[in-house]
């Protein structure tokens, strides 16, 4: 079949713009204005995929977001492809390539289909739970098989080449859905001057008006839409966005709008165009005009290709000029379904019969059918569809008045298409996102949005007002109301009265499940959820097995767990559950829809925040030099820090060995600019320091520095650093690189909320100062060459002094502090001067063997001295005493500083706490694994009694052996004991507990 | 994403500018050294977990860097009002960012 045979006149496609596309490897033709689904129907493609569990052939069933069969993998290459696209929502473009999500090796001959046909009796609901849960260790193997069989779409493996972005908006009114209600609302709100965003998920605005025969003010629906749109586009305060889905409605009227900017253009999109854009909108008011979704009827073999929603049949005929088949049978429980039969007939094709479950239908629809000579079978049902890859016929039988029993003999009607119209379910999804509990309305047999805490209005079918005239007037009123809420009114505030020429629809019947001559459990499959292959029999079995809550039935059967979230199936499933339990639908309860309404690509979620823009990177003022020196970097927080500076051909170990030895024997230089720096001023600055540090600050003189530990109120160490007294009321605090922001927040928190009367000010100056550390026995001689105005002699400039002077001709604060145990000077200069100073030092450095070292060597050098790194040697459960740093805790301070009371808790003064000790492996060449757990007896049975873990472990080239620090229960009292670290291979590494100061315990090297 | 009125900046900003700091009005005991372990644990660990109105502290991290208080409904996430540290909430003049049951149409 080719598309020309199935195309009819009319529609909204551009016949002058033919388009070629490929589906499952076959080339087809369509027109601009088609969706992939309409083009497939026009080409006579009946089978578009295979079902999830039973692998049954499936065809296009719907025309929009509700589609659960025509799910495709879109895109020609890994870099551009998108999984789980609904063919009904994908505009056709030239060169489009798509394939079925399900169906291997192909949809027409499917191996799994045979398995499904033979094995369906063996795959009851809960099959996966029952079969694959044990043994648990095999789950990973099972999962691979299940996913392959289920064909859930494949994740692209190549980087996405397309652009995506985000846009933030703040507007008065967001209107979701541009059908009759949404358009009327936008017209009303727009004319008040309020800022309005009107979105619709379809390719063009108009909703059902684009295919309804009704007239508004004498105009056909599509013409009225065009007129409304032209008015809206003329209003500068109104933004209209088609192909834009409101995917989530979040707290405080925050709504996300997913715009498919150029998905309909693909390669033809302008060079700089983005593919999709996520609009993040904060709205004063949100008006949901999301309409309703038609339900299929649950009847035997209702999934055979050719079974479609009645509204979709109309849409394909009127919008896309496609006849989905030749001979139609309509099965309906409401007047609205008749419209599909009328459209079919008026397009010149045969309507075999209208099968209506009701005793009587409305006058207008009956009249319309009769006048066209269409047979109506009242109080009847299509009890079974015959066919596998296409509808061949249907079995029809008379039903009891309530529709629950077959009472007549079935007769067979030959047809190739079955339109189903079970009723309309309001699209309450966005309302559910706000936490609103859906409310059942018996009169329309549907759930409508419940009360919400958001500033939300409703209009049209989403509220249960299905009549066109009501949609228009309610839209107009709600549009006026939302604008008025935002403070905007219009002179002619009276809602527009539309003249609507349409059928007067009579009452629908609450009807969900058509019976069969056999019991549900023995009848051919009656599908409820097409995407997850849940049947009426499966739901009944779940209730027989004791599942009474709809939430449990849902999880047991997987109903609503597909990518469509049960848009067409959930209500039918609830109705069948309710009947099986002998309850009403509201008693059974409903399930809640969650964001997102339809799947959102990762690209749109991420926007520009990928690759280089994923996270900010912080560079020191010396970064260019490090790059030129080919440093290897590591991430410390957001900072890029040189880890080591390899010479040609050097490994990391070789580089670190060289850097460490050079520092111990000559002089090393480190870029320490990333240390957090906080400038603290005020009359109470000194007292404040005493409250946040564990040691004493009252007597620290100008010109002196002091190391301090910061604890939480629980007594646990969380940061450390050196603070210098610049003046009596002025201090320069340093923090760890990663802790800078946290410490500043900590200081502000206590100042603002506990001690607001203290006069103290905190300013982050991390980026303003660069810190250059010279360390090693030659550091004084080198510094003397480049500095002025500082007496560097050991007597004049002692350990833990700081001096103001100049280095390389620029003002500098030089701190004599040491993180290596060597004679060390930390030179702080304004960051702008940093490169000049660094290069000036290097210009003189060769003579001293000046060697740049990175964080890896810094770690080894400090570990040789037993200096801790908070966050590595502490983990939030460690007091200063646990660290053996009781010398840094004062109990003489009058104020009960932060951490004091916490450290005094009963648990903190136990003697058997884990304590930080040094560890020397018995075999000096063995390096302990960081994180390894110590035990006393490696032969004990598992689980072993663990004593504590290794926190820092290195091979020290200065000491020519391995060194480590770690926690040992009661370790301070166990010096000299041997403990064991079990390895994965069953062996254990023995280590002796010792002081963590491995090198120069007297401190002779730094006191020179 | 919440929309939070900073009482110092005097405008609504998105939640991503703020840090949540837990229950408000947890005063540090005046004399910690004479607190029992249980009293101290109450101060540092034990917090209310109400269903409904909750007084809580927020930090305008990437804004003015000020701490302030909010009364937020833990069910609806409605923020009844925000107020500065040291102030008492003025519910009458409160900045209300949501409204119970507003299916207005």
Topology (elements, then pairings):
The complex is a heterodimer of chains A (1008) and B (105).
Chain A: H1 3-6, E1 14-23, E2 26-32, H2 36-42, E3 49-50, E4 57-58, E5 71-74, E6 82-86, E7 96-100, H3 111-119, H4 127-132, H5 139-150, E8 164-176, H6 180-190, E9 196-199, E10 215-216, E11 219-220, H7 221-234, E12 238-241, E13 244-250, E14 254-259, E15 276-288, E16 292-294, E17 307-309, H8 310-318, E18 327-332, H9 338-346, E19 350-356, H10 363-371, E20 376-377, E21 380-386, E22 393-398, E23 411-414, E24 417-421, E25 424-426, H11 429-433, E26 439-441, E27 446-448, E28 456-458, H12 468-485, E29 500-501, E30 527-529, E31 534-535, H13 536-544, H14 550-557, H15 570-581, H16 585-588, H17 602-606, H18 623-628, E32 632-636, E33 639-644, H19 652-665, E34 668-671, E35 676-681, H20 685-692, E36 705-711, E37 717-727, E38 730-735, H21 740-754, E39 761-764, E40 769-775, H22 779-786, E41 787-788, E42 802-807, E43 810-815, E44 824-830, H23 834-845, E45 851-852, H24 855-864, H25 900-903, E46 914-921, E47 933-934, E48 948-956, E49 961-969, E50 978-982, E51 988-994
Parallel strand pairs in A: 1-7, 8-9, 8-15, 9-12, 15-28, 17-24, 18-19, 18-24, 19-20, 34-45
Antiparallel strand pairs in A: 1-2, 3-4, 5-6, 5-7, 10-11, 10-29, 13-14, 14-15, 16-25, 21-22, 22-23, 26-27, 30-31, 32-33, 34-40, 35-38, 35-39, 36-37, 37-38, 40-44, 41-42, 42-43, 43-44, 46-49, 46-51, 47-48, 48-49, 50-51
Chain B: E1 3-6, E2 11-14, E3 19-23, H1 37-44, E4 53-59, E5 67-73, E6 79-84
Antiparallel strand pairs in B: 1-2, 3-4, 4-5, 5-6
Question: Can you tell me about this structure?
Answer:
- The complex is a heterodimer of chains A (1008) and B (105).
- In chain A, the strands form 13 sheets. In chain A, strands 8, 9, 12, 13, 14, 15 and 28 form a seven-stranded mixed beta sheet that branches. A seven-stranded mixed beta sheet of chain A has the order 41-42-43-44-40-34-45.
- Chain A is an alpha+beta fold and 1008 residues long.
- The longest helix of chain A has 18 residues.
- Chain A folds into six domains: 119 residues, Ubiquitin-like (UB roll) (Roll); 205 residues, FAD/NAD(P)-binding domain (3-Layer(bba) Sandwich); 114 residues, FAD/NAD(P)-binding domain (3-Layer(bba) Sandwich); 106 residues, 2-Layer Sandwich (Gyrase A, domain 2), CATH 3.30.1360.120; 89 residues, Alpha-Beta Plaits (2-Layer Sandwich), CATH 3.30.70; 99 residues, Aminomethyltransferase beta-barrel domains (Elongation Factor Tu (Ef-tu), domain 3, Beta Barrel), CATH 2.40.30.110.
- In chain A, 53% of the residues are buried.
- Chain A contains 25 helices and 51 strands.
- In chain B, β1 and β2 form a beta hairpin.
- Chain B has one domain: 2-Layer Sandwich (Folate-binding fold), CATH 3.30.2270.
- Chain B is 8% helix and 31% strand.
- Chain B has 105 residues and is mostly beta strands.
- The two termini of chain B are 24 Å apart.
- In chain B, the strands form two sheets. In chain B, strands 3-4-5-6 form a four-stranded antiparallel beta sheet, with no helix packed on it.
- The interface between A and B is large, with 43 and 37 residues.
